Amino acid sequence: MIAWNDLQKIANFQRVSPFVVLREYVQILFLNGLYSLDNADNIVFKGGTCLRLIHNSNRFSEDLDFTTDFSSSQIGSLVAQAVGLVTKETPPINIKTVKTISGFTQKLSMLTIYSPTSISIKLDFSQRELVLQKNQKPISSILPISSFYPITHMEMTEILAEKCRAIVSRHKGRDIYDLWYLLQRKTPIDVGLIQKKLDYYQQKFDLNELIKNIKSWEFEKFSQDVRGFLPEPDRQTFPFVIPTLIEKLKDAMIT
Questions:
Q1: In terms of residue numbers, what domain contains 204?
Q2: Potential cystine with 109: which of 17, 22, 118, 139 (Cβ 3.0-4.6 Å)?
Q3: Residues 52 and 126 in one domain
Q4: Domains held by the chain: number
Q5: Of 101, 123, 154, at which residue does a domain stop?
Q6: Widest CA span of the chain, in angstroms?
Q7: What is the C-alpha separation between 27 and 70, in angstroms, rounded?
Q8: How far apart are the first and last CA of the chain?
Q9: Known InterPro entries for this protein (predicted)?
């Protein structure tokens, strides 16, 4: 288990709370455990934490998101095996299955001597769609973790498509920030791929509607939603995120 002094040093260096770093430490241990297992490459890591750990975003994240064609019982078995590997280095971890309308969701909870409240990580597995662009890459981290297994992950163009879908179907500032980050990285906007993602919801992609949803965010609410997931220096970008994002999307409409 990572020592408190190491947590504090890394947190001070990254300008975030030690508990944000501790959660990421457990996330990486879990991912390493999961992808060390046979057949785990049929589970594709995606979402905001994938942007952070694989694609170098500065935004920390609470959840681990995946797409797979495995059954819920197969996923549950792999999660239990991965947690068994993690707890060789950590205190016990509780696994709770959460009822959801679609997909398969579990919640990991771990009590430590560092806090009276538990560290929680939600695992979301989508089981109804195919991943069209995936690759493998180990995580790179300054955290004291001994080995890193290749992680089967979604590529940025497809994550961008899913982020566009998320923005028109839910209201989370972190989706706005992630889309901004992806466009700052010059990730292509593949309208056909976005439409394929929306086909699962029987929706048509409308770039004007996407821009309208982004414009609806008030600065203070956006800042509050994202602030706790970013190092202090990166919070200076907040006033520019939404205007820059809208400008880039409008440019995409022209081209």
A1: 157-254
A2: 118
A3: yes
A4: 2
A5: 154
A6: 55
A7: 21
A8: 51
A9: AbiEii (IPR014942)
> Distance (Å, rounded) from C-alpha 245 to C-alpha 179?
8
* 63-113 per-position pLDDT tens digit: 999 999 999 999 999 999 999 999 999 999 999 999 888 899 999 999 999
Listed in sequence order, the residues at least 6 apart from 205 whose beta carbon sits closer than 8 Å to its beta carbon are: 164, 191, 194, 195, 198
Residue with tokens 């919801």: 201
Structure tokens at 69: 């064609």
Tokens 């028109």 locate to 168
